[in-house]
Specification:
The complex is a heterodimer of chains A (460) and B (83).
Chain A lengths: L3 E6 L3 H12 L4 E4 L11 E4 L2 E4 L17 H8 L9 E3 L3 E4 L4 E4 L3 H11 L4 H13 L11 H8 L3 H13 L10 H14 L2 E3 L3 H14 L3 E3 L4 E7 L2 E7 L4 E9 L2 H9 L13 E10 L12 E5 L17 E5 L12 E10 L1 H6 L2 H23 L8 E5 L1 H8 L23 E3 L8 H18 L3
Parallel strand pairs in A: 1-2, 1-12, 2-9, 6-14, 12-18
Antiparallel strand pairs in A: 3-4, 5-8, 6-7, 10-11, 11-12, 13-16, 13-17, 14-15, 15-16
Helix pairs in contact in A: 1-8, 1-13, 2-13, 6-7
Chain B lengths: L2 H15 L14 H5 L3 H15 L14 H11 L4
Helix pairs in contact in B: 1-3, 1-4
Classes of the chains: A alpha/beta (460), B mainly alpha (83).
Chain lengths: 460, 83
């Protein structure tokens, strides 16, 4: 008999959600996480007394309590967590800002509709048609890749509006360059524009603690600082995992949440690895400012998606970091959050993994300082001087992301090719998480839930 | 288990998997799915709870037997007669 019925590689959100499902129904389950904290991409750390959240700008897929079919609420039922006692704060409003035109949106789609009507009068009806088409489209029905750009070009007569709509949807979850799969577009449109942004009342740490406690309450086991060094296999089956310390743990079923390239490397799966390597990575900077500084900044939105060029160039830049487009987030700007002594400004810009990877330590530091200066030059034009009086600053590069999240090349949204059914060439090895094609915190967790339901619970 | 016990068991399971469940006016001959607004993921939870609590293995092709409260009772009665 194997040591565990299920071993899950990775204690990020998809791994924790998978673990809760399996343990809830009595499977002897072990999660192995390489770091000393859970969360993966969405985790936290402490510096100078501040608890800083990584990854999280906002959660998408907001839903009111009682909206039974909404992804967020289905997720809570599946994890046997009480949605009624989970307090949330909705966003204030967000902005898509291009050189000559801006569009505001909130969790009420009517605002975006009104903005489109005002800024693009000739697109009023086409936009309504787009919304109707999105509502009717079932993105979970298996379908071959279809170009979202071509679909949009057929509906919306203004390419500027197309780029403006695509910016937030791409930057919050598109692993492909330039274009995206129509199904993915629909998922993101629903998640951001129809359902919208919110954050939990507590911190990311509280959220992760809730998940870990739920998992352990069902009898699940979790080992931190346990890196999987390899997967033992026999023919078309996997038998267990070898941990970096030399220990071997056998299992009936193995679930990997470390992405397609990472999984392939562990198993020795002769996949065509390069095609599964995502190109989209980012540099993120966090600045912590005293509350009084808020008055001198244009800091009233929750998130600003900006592009300083006429068209959107969603691709890996040729330089280390491209400040031409990006995201400016104010994580304290959610409705009814208590006033804090400090607030954060988080800025995300596209980056080129290969350039950061090649740099020696000295050059890496120079690139970091240079990126910071170029981001500042661009973003301070939009929101004002966000470095003045700052009490803390830090930035993450594609290498930081790769190191802490096991995402190959720091590609936060994983592989451009999604393995939607979670299947691998091995009959008892499955994949969940980003590379299964569900994105965001709610999406990653639903991915874990779905794969455990379909591949493990319904089969066992 | 008697037929009434099985009915209670099903309702207990649904109350357990869904904090919003409201049983007032529930018609035993009408689909649970429509009346309680359950989706396929909720339905899987009913099956999994039956497995966890009573060691019942219900193959996927027999899930439709659980459509209404009465069909649940009819289907489960022989399986639970000794429990």
């Amino acid at each position: 008999m194997a040591d565990y019925q299920l071993v899950i590689i990775g204690g990020g959100l998809s791994g924790l959600a998978s673990g809760i499902r399996a343990a809830r129904f009595g499977l002897k389950t072990l999660i192995v996480e390489q770091h000393s904290l859970p969360g993966g991409l969405n985790s936290y750390y402490y510096r100078h007394g501040f608890l800083l959240e990584t990854g999280l700008h906002a959660m998408t897929n907001f839903a009111e309590v009682g909206d039974r079919h909404a992804p967020l609420n289905r997720l809570f039922r599946q994890l046997k967590l009480s949605r009624k006692t989970f307090a949330t704060h909705q966003q204030l409003s967000s902005l898509i800002r291009f050189p000559e035109v801006s569009l505001r949106f909130s969790n009420d789609l009517a605002l975006l509709e009104a903005e489109v009507e005002q800024q693009f009068p000739h697109c009023r009806t086409p936009f309504q048609k787009l919304v109707a088409a999105v509502r009717e489209y079932d993105p979970f029905h298996p379908a071959p890749w279809r170009s979202a750009r071509r679909f949009l070009a057929g509906l919306i007569p203004d390419p500027l509006l197309v780029d403006m709509l695509l910016l937030p949807l791409m930057v919050y979850g598109n692993s492909e360059e330039h274009d995206m799969d129509l199904g993915q577009f629909v998922i993101m449109f629903q998640a951001l524009f129809v359902e919208g942004f919110f954050r939990p009342h507590g911190t990311m740490k509280d959220f992760l603690t809730m998940l870990v406690e739920q998992y352990k309450g069902f009898g699940g086991e979790l080992r931190y600082s346990s890196r999987v060094a390899g997967v033992r296999r026999q023919g078309d089956r996997v038998e267990g995992v070898e941990l970096a310390g030399g220990e071997y743990v056998s299992c009936d079923t193995l679930l990997s949440t470390v992405g397609a390239p990472g999984t392939a490397a562990l198993v020795g799966w002769p996949a065509d690895a390069p095609k599964y390597e995502g190109q989209m990575s980012f540099v993120e900077s966090i600045s912590v400012l005293p509350a009084a500084q808020r008055a001198v900044l244009d800091a009233h939105h929750t998130i600003i998606f900006y592009n300083s060029q006429q068209t959107l160039s969603y691709k890996r830049p040729a330089i280390a970091m491209n400040p031409d487009w990006g995201v400016i987030c104010f994580p304290e700007n959610f409705q009814d959050l208590p006033e804090q002594d400090f607030f954060q400004v988080r800025i995300t810009n596209p980056a080129n993994y290969a350039i950061w990877k090649q740099a020696d330590p000295k050059e890496y530091q120079r690139l970091k300082a240079d990126s910071e200066a170029r981001t500042f030059a661009r973003v301070s034009e939009i929101i004002g001087n966000y470095q003045q009086n700052r009490v803390y600053h830090d930035s993450f590069t594609p290498l930081t992301i790769e190191r802490y999240t096991a995402k190959a090349q720091g590609a936060v949204y994983g592989s451009p090719i999604k393995i939607k059914d979670g299947l691998t060439p091995y009959s008892n090895l499955f994949m969940a998480g980003t590379d299964q094609g569900f994105l965001g915190i709610v999406g990653a967790m639903l991915s874990g839930v779905t794969i455990v339901n379909q591949r493990i619970l319904m089969r066992s | 288990m008697t037929r009434d016990d099985i009915k209670d068991l099903i309702l207990d399971i649904i109350a357990d998997i869904d904090e919003d469940a409201e049983f007032a006016g529930l018609d035993s001959d009408k689909p649970l799915r429509d009346q309680l607004d359950l989706d396929s993921m909720d339905f899987l939870d009913i099956v999994m709870e039956l497995r966890k609590r009573h060691k019942l293995q219900i193959p996927e092709e027999e899930y439709p037997e659980l459509a209404t409260l009465n069909s649940c009772v009819n289907y489960l009665e022989p399986k639970l007669k000794d429990q």
